[in-house]
Amino acid sequence: MFRTVLKVGAVLALVSMSTLAFGQQSATGSDPKPAVSAAAPTAQPGAPSAVASTPATNAVVAPSPKGMATALHELSPWSMFMSADIIVKIVMIGLAFASLVTWTVFIAKMIELTLVQRGLRLALRKIADSRSLAEAQFALGSKGTVLSSLLSAAMREARLSAGISSDAGVKERAASSFAEIVRSESRRIRVGMGLLATIGATSPFVGLFGTVWGIMNSFIGISKSQTTNLAVVAPGIAEALLATAIGLVAAIPAVIIYNHFSRVTKGYLELVGRASGASARLLSRDLDRTHVSPGRPANSHAAE
Q1: Would you say residue 56 lies in a domain?
Q2: What mean pLDDT value characterizes the chain?
């Protein structure tokens, strides 16, 4: 009887030690290993049974692969945006709006530059054989191109300078008017380019701000949960990195479109310079004709 009691006590001590060890492993986050069951003592005839059964109260259910796949599937861009911090959401919305503005400027400027270049080339072809400012204006008609503005400025200066014998002064004043028109056209055609430059230069840094803020919140969550499990901190880090990705999506097209429009604008301003030169030549011809005697042809005057 005494031996049986000793054996029962030993079995109970082993069970309590294994339960304590299992609890410590669960607290430290390590994978619990099943305790090795002690050998059941040999029952003596007529002796009471030792321990009938031990309830499995500390059983741990491992996550199923299907549940892990569902959790990974939920890390979509939309779900990451919806679960992000309010500051990160504001950054993402601002970058998305900047990307929308970039493509809007691209479509608008592409249409504008195509139309003005085509119209100016056509206008230059129309006045190629014109002999005077009045003839050039008649050939152009009422089209509102920059060439029409240059011809109007030349005719206005010639009218205001009537009776002045100094042709050099007339040409100088006309050249000043041409320069103002060219500068105004240059400013007008570059509208929207500064916006593209701003978006291309600042979007990566705005996205980086959202990333830093999101990673900071992830580290705060790590300190609160007191765990280094990657599955706990991965969603927050992914949300933070999404802000940087959106910033690059907004910045890269803006830089490419800005460089493209810089080249196209430079070509258009060269056409404007050609139009200014054509207007100056027509003004010079008109001024030379005013010095020719009414009954004397210009070629005989030049021959003398």
Answers
A1: no
A2: 74
Domain enclosing residue 96, as ranges = 80-293
Report how far residue 212's alpha carbon sits from residue 204's, in angstroms, rounded to the nearest whole number. 12
Residue 86 has pLDDT above 70, yes or no: yes
pTM for this prediction: 0.65
Annotate the chain with DSSP letters as a single string. -HHHHHHHHHHHHHHHHHHHHHHHHHHHTPPP-PPPPPPPPPPPTTPPPS-------S--PPPPHHHHHHHHHT--HHHHHHTS-HHHHHHHHHHHHHHHHHHHHHHHHHHHHHHHHHHHHHHHHHTTT--SHHHHHHHHTT---HHHHHHHHHHHHHHHTTT---HHHHHHHHHHHHHHHHHHHHHHHTTTHHHHHHHHHHHHHHHHHHHHHHHHHHHHHHHHHT---HHHHHHHHHHHHHHHHHHHHHHHHHHHHHHHHHHHHHHHHHHHHHHHHHHHHHHHHHHHHTTS-TTS-HHHHHH-
pLDDT tens digits for range 177-235 = 999 999 999 999 999 999 999 999 999 999 999 888 888 877 777 777 776 666 666 77
Q: How many domains does the chain have?
A: 2
Mark whether 217 and 173 lie in a shared domain.
Answer: yes
Within a domain: residue 100? yes
Residue range 241-294, pLDDT digits in tens: 888 889 999 999 999 999 999 999 999 999 999 999 999 999 988 888 876 645
pLDDT in tens, 39-56: 444 444 444 444 344 444
